[in-house]
Amino acid sequence: MTGSITDATAGHIGDAGHWPAPYAERPIDATVRVPGSKSLTNRYLVLAALADGPSRLRAPLHSRDSALMVGALRQLGADVREVPGDGPFGPDLEVTPIPSDSGVLDAAIDCGLAGTVMRFVPPMAALRKGVSVFDGDPHARERPMGTIIDALVALGVTVRGEAGATPSSLPFRVEGTGEVRGGHLVIDASASSQFVSALLLVGARFTEGLHLEHSGDSVPSLDHINMTVAVLRGVGVEVDDSTPNHWIVSPGPIRAFDERIEQDLSNAGPFLAAALASGGTVRIPDWPEHTTQVGDLWRSILTDMGADVTLDAGTLTVTGGDAIRGADFADTSELAPTVAALCALATGPSRLSGIAHLRGHETDRLAALVAEINGLGGDAQETDDGLVIRPAKLHGGVVRSYADHRMATAGAILGLAVRGVEVQDIGTTAKTMPDFPQLWADMLAQGSAPAHSSAGTPGGTQH
Ligand SMILES: O=C(O)C1=C[C@@H](OP(=O)(O)O)[C@@H](O)[C@H](O)C1
Ligand SMILES: C=C(OP(=O)(O)O)C(=O)O
Question: pTM for the whole thing?
């Protein structure tokens, strides 16, 4: 760490489990790499377990959510091995698929708090013989699951809750017979795009394939569904998504693959936000030229907030100015907590819309963001489908993370601009980024641009 960035406590957890968020005395000037994409890693893990031969994931994410997925697939009979790779964030993974003739095998699946595990794995369990019991963290029992359970029941699969009746949330058991006929299925996926992705990922393995239709309010996080469709096509699965709210997956094999996982562009967000929060520069090399990750939206979001954003020779460079501009953002999906943290530091008002379903994420993110921003003296309010955040002078205090990795990283962003912020349970970032405190400290340690006044932001006035 250079002398230009204060707070030598970066990366340490305080006695009360509070992480003193490092405060940026000067503009950050850093080049950062982040681990592999959670969404891509867990999709490719699912497909590898269902494929027609052994597959390899290069530079995958190693985190709690990916470990939970690996654990689930092993329970279902897949063989997942770590093999040396060339990525800086851990080994590659080789996957031998779930054998089709493994007999009757019972399984216990720990979903943790991972939406991808609790939604993607139950349809896989229906495709093999045996009982698979699903449960997770306490809050996982409150996340929306009814749509996926009802979908399986409509497909002829037996799903029982603790009392024996059809449940609407974790815990439950799926009684697989080894075969699902498939066909036309209508669901309401307005609470999560993961319901659609979950069924599309297995659809080719249904005897008749799958014609999935969404009926209800709009489906959130459409980028994630488009990612699912693109990944499926990449492994030889035919998907027709030419009619809005309809996805037709032809029956057929899922081709084994050897795939390099892109870095997690959503998790790049807090580091890029650090450029704005400190009025400095953050570069991320190997930014994909074409990607299905929602995190590619950082390029427009951060431009709208007043940053200078360039993508040159594969490196994304974000330079913050003297002030962060407030703006209106629709459908920011999993990027919303990071966006909200920047909005709380902005000089003008912001509105985030199209994110009502965040109430069913790791925590009720709309309520949590309002409570924690306002707890630091901010001015945030919930709307029907999002947040309004107005400029306010912030002060130090504790940011609670609610077991939500993105609340914890939002606290870290605020702490760069506001002295005296502590994040409760920074360890929860392990859900998708186990090294977050170290990566954050490394970013700060790299040096700093010449001092500039960050006093243009409400947070900056606290310096
Ligand atoms: O399919 C995926 O990998 C994801 C889909 C989105 O879920 P929702 O549609 O529930 O927002 C996103 O928020 C989540 O972080 C990851
Ligand atoms: C909503 C998220 O996760 P999950 O995959 O658990 O839904 C997220 O990572 O922001």
Answer: 0.94
